[in-house]
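Amino Acid Chain and Its Fold in Token Form
===========================================
Purpose: to set a sequence beside its fold so the mapping can be learned.
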Amino acid sequence: MAILTSSDLAKSHGATPVLRSVTFSVESAEKVALIGRNGSGKTTLLRLLAGLEDPDSGSVSRARWAKVGYLAQIPTGAGDVSVLSHVLSGAADVHALEARLRKLEQLMADPGVHDDPLRLAEVMDEYGQVRHHFEHAGGFALDARARAVLGGLGFPEVWLTSALDPLSGGWRVRAELARVLLGEPDLLLLDEPTNHLDLAATEWLEEYLRAFPGAAIIVSHDRRLLDVVTTRTLELEAGSVTAFPGSYTKYTTLKAQQVEQQAEAYRRHQEEVERLEAYIRRYHAGVRAGQAKSRAKRLARLTASPAPPQTEMPVMRPAAREVPLSGRMVVRLQGVGKRYGETDVLSDVDLEIYRAERIGLLGANGVGKTTLLKVIAGIEPPSRGRVTVGSGVRAHYFAQEPAADLAGERNVLETVLADRPMTPEQVRTYLGRFLFSGEDVFKRVSMLSGGERQRLSLATLLLDRPNVLLLDEPTNHLDIPSREALEAALLEFSGTLIVATHDRYLLERLVTRVLTVAGGRVTDFRGTYGELRAKRSPASHRGGQPRRPSSAVRPRPGRTARPPAPSFDQLAAQIAATERDLADAGRQLSDPELYRDGERTKATRARYERAQQQLDDLYRQLAALESGDS
């Protein structure tokens, strides 16, 4: 059964058509990827599907029972509430049920209702129905679920009572994502949900979406998430949507076949046109004039059919150039530490990096990955320890937000030309590989979009032929075709590469060594990112289930053993028992006879609140176990 149907949807922004004749449907529980180039209209389509904008023509229909949750790329709204309160507002329907329960409890305790059997029966009947809906909606565990979702998305517990307003845009996006997920809608519409997420939070979201029982339409540049979660792909190109079965990788195969078939059909069409035209020219007069006339009619029918539309958009084409050879040892860090004020970001880092290594740099947001890159690049001096750079090293650092490194008042052409020994014509040809053509080269840097700035920074970076690339989130703001083009160039790069990225697809294709930054320390893993994932995720930890702890370690003599952390099975049993206790206390609270005894009423309420608190604590322990913090 379709949960959503789009029929002949069309939308223009001013005089510019964005969508035309968009028709598709999504089944309940189906996970669908919506892909397309930056600016192709994906966000506009999601807003139309969510009912936040009206189409110029066509219609969107949703199942009457369907609850829709929409995540915008840039959430708006009041930030003068706590993080937890904002997230809990996503379950407004559950809060409304809880408020009604409290009101009904007050009515049951009211002598005017209690002494009227008919009125009491009506209140009791409504109480039973509301309570059933409240329990079914997970109302008793709502606070615990909110904390678990926030924990999965990387929020420290101490932040939950802090105001939302002072948080950065990235953390506000995470809070909004948590609010949408907590509402447990029947249909999720997610616009770049992994933006601003680190690897751990992205992997948590991936597992959440895999287990999510409802339907989802996901716009994302995270190809691995699309591969793992989605089963159908909608391609938005030139204002129209084409559906492909399977995940993103399957789509790329089918799309390549489609393009090849269209090209072959067009080639055969052109060959037939040329053959007929040649026959007509040769035999338009004489004994075969009748046959030539017949072929002319056939030619008219052929040419009346237009050639396949050329919808392919230009793709960035960075090329890896030959780079000078560096010494075998590129850089050595010995006891390196870095402190900002009273905070140690890096501590006692010992590291050696060798020529032609391809290194991935992992770690949560804010742990010091950027600092480590800058120390290696010589941009930031270490607070202690020593950094030794090898012979012949030409290192270039690519900033996470490259706009800071570009002169905003210069135009694109001037930025690349600078004092390089190139003519403007040579620079314009080179910039064309990065999708700057025509008048685009005269745009001021300050007027460029995030994606354009990223491409410009990459163009200047590669032009100077460095033999060591230090890349900090190089795929930010790039659409999927541009990401793939950059990957291809980096695979051809013959120098040394260190890349900090949350793009798991890039990591899996590119790196053969992984450095992980946590707690100021650097852990070195000699292997691919896939091998590291396999090592961290044993067979017993699949499908998003919490990892069971290994057998307890015996305490050393003379030391007091810490009590072992509860296992998943133990927590599950405690949660089940506590929920039974909570339900029993709730049933007693729904008994009108209870309210004749004030002390018993007070004790039952206290028991109910204790069970609720205990349940919240157990769910927090479960969330910690799932994140590996226990």
Remarks:
- The CA atoms of residues 79 and 165 lie 4 Å apart.
- The two ends are 42 Å apart (CA to CA).
- The longest helix spans residues 248-283.
